[in-house]
Write a structure and sequence with these properties.
InterPro entries: ABC3_permease_C, Membrane_comp_ABC_pdt. With about 750 residues, this protein is of the alpha+beta class. It has 24 helices and 19 strands.
Length: about 750
Amino acid sequence: MNLIRKQVYKNLLRNKGYIAVLFLVVLLTSFMYYFVEFSVDKNTTNLQSYVTEQQREQFRFQVRSDVDEAKVIDQLGQDYVLEARSIKKISDGDQKYFFINKTDHFNLPYIKTGRLPITESEIALSPEFMQSNHIELGQSLTIEDTTYTITGSFYLPDYEVFIPFGDIQQDYDSATFAIVTPKVYEKYTGKEELYFAGRVKADDDIEIEAKLAALKGNSAFSYMAQTNEITSHSQLQTGLDSNKILAHTFLLIIGLISLFLYYMFYKRFMMLHKQEFGCYKALGFTSLQISSVLVRFSLLIAAVGTLAGLVLGFFGSSILLQLYSSSYSFPYLTRGIDVSSFCYGVVLVIAATVLVTYIAVIQFMTQDGYSLLNNVDKTQNMSGATAVANKIANLLPPRWRLPVRVVLRKWNTLLLSALTILIVSTLFITSNSLYISSGTIIDAQTAGRSYEYDVTYDSYQQDQESLRVSRMYYLKEPIQIIQNERQIPVTIVGLDTQGSLLNLYNLKNDLIQLDHVNGVVISQGISELYGIGKGEALQFILDRKHLSANVADIVMNGDTNTIYLDKEELATKLGIASDMHSGELSNEYKHDASSSVVTAKEKRAIIENNSVSNRSSAVINQILGAVIGCLLLYIVVMLNFQDRTQDMVILRLLGYKPREINRLLVDVYRPMFVILYVFMSPIAIYISAQIHRLISIQTSDYIPFSTNGWFIMLAIVLIMLLYSLVVFFFKRKTYVWVRNEPIDISH
C-alpha cells in the first residue's frame, strides 16, 4: 500500500500549480467566511447580554399635547414599566453637548471608566468624544463659562448610533452625550426632547409581542416606535445580521467554486493516469484502497487550507471590528466564533471536499481493469461535442478553425470560462457601484438645493408671507406605508410650492411642480426597495388615519425614504390650517430653544460618514474579484495546457515555433473571453443590481446601483490583463515542454 501511495502522490505533485490552486481556493473559502464570521458571532452574543444587563427599552413614545399625560402614564403602568427620558442640546462654539438624564430602571449607562457625576462640578462624557479630542479623566471641561471635572465615560444602550432623539446623526469629533446632576441639567437652556421609554411587564415572548402590538393603535400617542424601528439602537443588530448572511454567502459561492475545481482536477487526473490505475487493479488493489489514497490527499489539503483560512480570518476580522468601532458605540466588540461556525467553515468544507473527490474518483474505479489498461473511453463515441465543434469551425476562415475546435471540443472548460467571466465581472461591477454609491447619494441629496440651514420646530409655526421669498416652509410627519400586511416607516414632507430653495427632479431630470401633481411623489429609494412604481396606488397611515394616494412620479434628488407632496394638501390631510409649518429651509441662521438646526455641511458629512462601509465593501470585492479571477483563469489555462501537451510536441516536430504553438493552443481563449463577456455582462449587471437591492433591504439604507459604459469596458480590460498575466507564465512552460517532453502518441 505504501508503494502505491508514493507513486500516486508523485504523480499528483507533478501538478504543483494545480495543487497550489486547490489549496488556495479552500483557504480562500475558509478565510472569507471567517473574515466576516469572527466579527459577528461573539458580538451577537455580547449584544444580547448587553441589552439584557443594561435593561434596554423595548419601545418609546410621546404623548399628544392635547391629552392628559399623567392619566395616560397611569393607565399604561398596569402592563408596562415606564420612565421619562429627556435630552437637552447645548451648543458651545463648535462643540455640541447632548445632556441626557440618568435613568434608574432601564437604559442604564454602562460605565467604561471612572464614575458618573455626584456633585454639580462634575460631568461624564462619551468615550469616543474623549478619545477623538484627547481628553483624559480628571481634566477640566468648560461649557458656557462653567468649568466641570470629567469623572467618567459611559455608553448608552439606547444610543449605539449617535442619533439623539429629535435630531440628526452626530459626529463624536464635535459632539457628545453628557451626564450631569439634575440641578445642572435644569440650569441650561437648549432645545429639549422629552419622551417615555418602556418595557413590557412579562417574560413570555408571545405576550410581549402582543402587548407591544397593542401600543401601536393607542390614539394618545403622537409618536411610538419599537426597538427594531429605532435607528439609534437597531443598526448594530441589523449590521451583524447582514454580515452573517454575507459570511454564509461567501461560504456557499466560493465553496461551490472550490468543489467544482476539485472535481475537475481529479476527473482530469484520473483520465490522464487511467492505465496506471488499471495496473494497480491488476496487481490486486481494490477500488476502495486506490480511492482512499486520493481521498486522504484531498483531506490533507482541505484540512490545512481551512485551518489556515481560519487563522487568517481571525486576524483579518480586525478590519471589520475597526469599522464597527467607528460606527457604533458599543463596549464589547471582540472576536470569536460559535461551535456551529467552526463546523460550517472547517468540518463541512473538509467533508464536502472529500465527498467530491470520492465521486470524481469512483467513476473510474468502478470500471474493470481491461477498460482502464486499454484507456477505453466509453463516452467518446457517444459525445456530439466533436461533431458540433467541427461544424462550427468549418464555417470560419482556415486560420481560425483549429483554435475554435480546441475551444469548443472541451465543453467543461468552456463552462468554467463562462463561470469565471460571470463571477469576476459581477465582483468588479458590484465593487465599482459600491464605491461610487456614496458620490451618487451625495449628488442626489445636494442637487436642486440652494439653502444652508434646515430648521425644524417642536410645534407648528405660522407662515410669514413676507419671508417666503427668502425661506421655504414645509410640513414633515412620520408615516407608515402599508404593503403586503406590513408597515414600512418613512417620512412624508409637504413643501411650500411658492419657495424655490428646494427643487425636485424626476428620473428624466425634469422639474416636478408639486402644486400640479395629482397625488404624491416618492424617492427613488422607496420605489426600488419596495417595488412601488409610477401610477400605482400608495396605501399609508398618517396620524393614525388610513389614506391612499396616487404615485405621480419618482424623485431623483429626494431624501431617502421620503414622500413629497404640496404643503397645503398635507395640511388638509392633517386637519390643520394651510398656513402652518413644522420647519423651514433658509440661508439665514435662526436658532432658539424650540428649534433644531441642521446645516448643509453637517448633512453632507453624515452622508460621507455612512459611505465608509460601502467603500470598504468595494475594496473587499475588488480584491476578491482579482484573487478569484486569477485562480479560475489559471485553472482554465491549465486544463487546456494539460489536454494539449502531446499536440504541442507534435506541432513542434512539424516545424511550428513556440510562439505559433502558443497562438494555436494557449492564446485561443482570449477572443472567447471577449465574446463570453459580451453575453455575461448583462447577467452580471442584473446580479449586481439585485445584490444592491438585497443589501439595502437588509440594512434599511438605500444603496443605489450605478454603472456606465466606460467601466463595463474597463472590466473586460481588467479581466484580459489578469488572463495575460496567467498566460505569461504558461508560455514559458510551453517552451520548455515542447523541447523536453518525450513523444507518446500510442493512444
